[in-house]
Amino acid sequence: MLRITELKLPLNHSKIDLQTAVLHRLKIDLNKFISCHIFRQSHDARKRNDIKMVYTVDVDVKDEAEILAEFIDDIYINQTPDTEYRLITHAAMTNKIRPIVIGSGPCGLLATLILAQMGFNPIMLERGKSVRERTKDTFALWRKRQFNAESNVQFGEGGAGTFSDGKLYTQIKDPNHYGRKVLQEFVKAGAPPEILYLGKPHIGTFRLVSMVEQIRATIESLGGEIRFQNRVDELLIQNGKVTGVQLANGGILESSHIVLAIGHSARDTFAMLNRVGVYMEAKPFSMGFRIEHPQSLIDKCHFGSSAGHPLLGAADYKLVHHCKNGRSVYSFCMCPGGTVVAATSEEGHVVTNGMSQYSRNERNANSAIVVGITPEIDYPEHVLAGVDLQRHWEQQAFLLGGENYSAPAQLVGDFLTQQPSTQFGSVEPSYTPSVKLGDLSYALPDYAVSAIREALPVFDKKIKGFAMHDALLTGVETRTSSPIRIKRNEKFQSLNTVGLYPAGEGAGYAGGILSAAIDGIKVAEAVARAIQS
Ligand SMILES: Cc1cc2nc3c(=O)[nH]c(=O)nc-3n(C[C@H](O)[C@H](O)[C@H](O)COP(=O)(O)OP(=O)(O)OC[C@H]3O[C@@H](n4cnc5c(N)ncnc54)[C@H](O)[C@@H]3O)c2cc1C
């Protein structure tokens, strides 16, 4: 099989046009061609009036070696690499060690799935409820202002990514193609097959829910076990080695191999780990607001008259500005055609995030506009001071919102001219249960507010209308990544606690669904190696 990269075609082209371009690129006739399929599809919209589709195509041809020899110096034509994932081992029939995985987010889910596929009969412990039950609890906050501290957007089957846009791209290096394995497992579980080749794939919330259930069924069919409403309250350690966990219900489970995939919001668990002496460090993260614009504004800016073309979908963006006060402001977790959601996991807090459905056809585009903060400058007091800082501003948002889970909001025009907002303009808020208009200057530290004030007009130069008067800011976005890193060694084990495998976003090793899932595979392999050594 030959792989052609950077094959560019105009936006309006047919399947035959693609095949013709392949033949032309390889300088072959139809009689040498067997078949081809798209490995990657993206678009190049740098020139709005001349948008190109960009393909990576795998082509099956007769006389492959002969054809390839003609392109020896062509970096865009190569042999198709082997990206197939192979399990590194199988558990011995006599294996009695059952690894424990704490957390059922993308990291814990993939770690458990791979361990189950290798025959290690893992046990996954999840503090929240199964995904259908959890959905009811999450909707209860969004619709009726009823909050459940153990079952919400952050906690429960599927982890933080379940009610999301389901964007599946990452910038991490992935030389072993673990990302492909993740996507293949997601497709087996019901994700749309095009996630395997789209440059920026996404799944959407509704499908994520049934996918998570399907992965659970696969794990169980392979001898794994999943226990919901099983919060780990204590890590049991003897002579620097893990021996098991104590659960909130008092039960004890023994294991010498424990994967810690608890996400960035398990603040009580962070405190417990710190108390029992697991080595961790404070780490940088970001805080800011969600911004909403009409999706049509973003589409028009990026795609011009091609906006709405089915191959392009709803446009996204990525923005960054380095401020005079030394801070960086950037857009984060952009959700085209989506909604802003209430994402707290603690009572009396307000936290924003974003999600969308597969169709991405809601009226508004949203993203977080956040400011980078660091432990050295902003929360030097102690290792968990970043958590204290997050809590402070989340509680402040709760107060500003009226202490009933409404989120504080302000129109961009008013935010820039430092006036409280009193009425909505053309952009309707998507956040539920509701937002309360006011003054967001009190919702974040001064340095963050002034950095965002400086950045918005700069972003407006890149996307005309970004700082439009009626665009809406909603606060506060505090859970951009973990405020701590639980350091691990080359065996993926904690620096000072043998048999503990800190993993995923909460431990500081991932920043999204795909990177968390990839980390889950790496850690599962490390556990398998350790058990068999
Ligand atoms: C609304 C929203 C939208 C998002 N959108 C996207 C997106 O489009 N694309 C993207 O890449 N990322 C997105 N993210 C981020 C993404 O969800 C996370 O990066 C990812 O889920 C991290 O995976 P994880 O497995 O490391 O942790 P999590 O998904 O946070 O999972 C951790 C799990 O551990 C459980 N847990 C915690 N403590 C304990 C304990 N003591 N005992 C037992 N269980 C415990 C929790 O209940 C949770 O289920 C979004 C996040 C949110 C909240």
General description of the model:
The structure is a single chain. This protein is an alpha+beta fold. It has 3 domains: 2-79, Alpha-Beta Plaits; 100-281 and 486-532, FAD/NAD(P)-binding domain, CATH 3.50.50; 284-477, no CATH class. Helices cover 29% and strands 23% of the residues. The chain is built from 13 helices and 23 strands. The strands form 6 sheets. It has a 7-stranded mixed beta sheet. A 5-stranded parallel beta sheet has the order 7-6-5-11-23, covered by helices on one side. A 4-stranded antiparallel beta sheet has the order 2-3-1-4, with helices on one face. A hairpin with a 5-residue loop joins strand 14 (320-322) and strand 15. The longest helix is centred in the C-terminal third of the chain and has 20 residues, at 513-532. Bound molecules: flavin-adenine dinucleotide. The site of flavin-adenine dinucleotide has 43 residues, from helix 3, strand 17 and helix 13. The site of flavin-adenine dinucleotide (FAD) has 43 residues, from helix 3, strand 17 and helix 13.
